[in-house]
Write a structure and sequence with these properties.
The two termini are 34 Å apart. This protein is mainly alpha-helical. 66% of the residues lie in helices and 8% in strands. The protein is built from six helices and three strands. The model has no long low-confidence stretch (mean pLDDT 94).
Length: 149
């Protein structure tokens, strides 16, 4: 047996498990909002800056447009976003929040931070620990992302 191939020595397993469990913790709160976790990610992008091309949303989420497009179509059916052709480039699809999508930001603010606080209340980390950890994860993400290019 190769020690380097033991599950407990794999950072990927810890990242995968943490991601899966964090997403699972969000699920009841997002269900209350009537959205999925990927839809929540799109909403956060649009809450930061409304009226964006599909390509920009996909880039920000580090996803392919063919992954984001069906997601946006479902969100449009839910009345959360609108899609229209770009004015300068008709091939471009511009995504904007509907009033319902804008209102969801307030609802999410009321539900999610407190909900995740409850989920993590027994975890010994402080806010600065999470910020440091996020920065360290960003370093890993950017290193691996730059290798894709």
């Amino acid at each position: 047996m190769y020690p380097e191939l033991q599950l407990d020595k794999q950072i990927c397993f810890r990242l995968y498990t943490a991601s899966r469990l964090v997403t699972q913790a969000y699920t009841p709160m997002l269900t209350e909002l009537g959205i999925t976790y990927p839809q929540y990610l799109v909403l956060m992008v649009l809450w930061e800056k409304d009226c964006q091309p599909v390509n920009d949303i996909a880039h920000r989420l580090m996803l392919e447009t063919n992954t984001v497009t069906p997601l946006l179509q479902r969100m449009e059916k839910l009345g959360i976003v609108n899609r229209k052709k770009g004015e300068q480039d008709k091939r471009q699809q511009i995504v904007s929040l509907t009033q319902k999508g804008k209102d969801m930001e307030e609802q999410a603010y009321e539900i999610i931070p407190a909900g995740m606080g409850r989920e993590l209340r027994t975890c010994p980390f402080q806010l600065e620990d999470y910020n440091k950890f996020a920065s360290e994860l960003d370093t890993i993400i950017n290193t691996l992302r730059n290798k894709e290019k």
